[in-house]
């Protein structure tokens, strides 16, 4: 949790700081998850908390960015 708090303090306007995804570890992989399941939610995976949160931020922005194809 300390690593997440540090990341959020350093990136206060990031999706991770604003949405506070759940953090978990599977084996040696850290997972940041917003949603009920990995399949249905927005996720970030990494070798450490910071990497998982950066991946989460990138995925969040990709998923929620308005499509340029929409009228």
Characterize the structure shown.
The protein is an alpha+beta fold. It has one domain: Double Stranded RNA Binding Domain, CATH 3.30.160. The protein has 3 helices and 3 strands. The chain has helices at residues 2-10, 15-19, 49-64, and strands at residues 22-26, 29-34, 42-46. Strand 1 and strand 2 (29-34) form a beta hairpin. The longest helix has 16 residues, at 49-64. The radius of gyration is 12 Å and the shape is globular. The model has no long low-confidence stretch (mean pLDDT 92).
Q: What's the shape?
A: globular
Counting structural domains, the number is: 1
> Uncertain segments of ≥5 residues (pLDDT<50)?
none
What's the end-to-end separation, in Å? 42 Å
Give a concise summary.
42% of the residues lie in helices and 23% in strands. By secondary structure, it is α+β, with helices and mostly antiparallel strands.
Which descriptors apply to this entry?
71 residues, alpha+beta, Double Stranded RNA Binding Domain, three-stranded antiparallel beta sheet, 3 helices, 42% helix
């Amino acid at each position: 949790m300390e690593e997440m708090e540090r990341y959020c303090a350093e990136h206060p306007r990031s999706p991770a700081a604003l949405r506070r995804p759940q953090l978990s570890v599977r084996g040696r992989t850290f997972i940041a998850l917003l949603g009920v399941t990995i399949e249905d939610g927005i996720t970030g995976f990494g070798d450490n908390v910071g990497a998982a949160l950066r991946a989460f931020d990138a995925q969040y922005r990709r998923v929620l960015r308005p499509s340029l194809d929409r009228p």
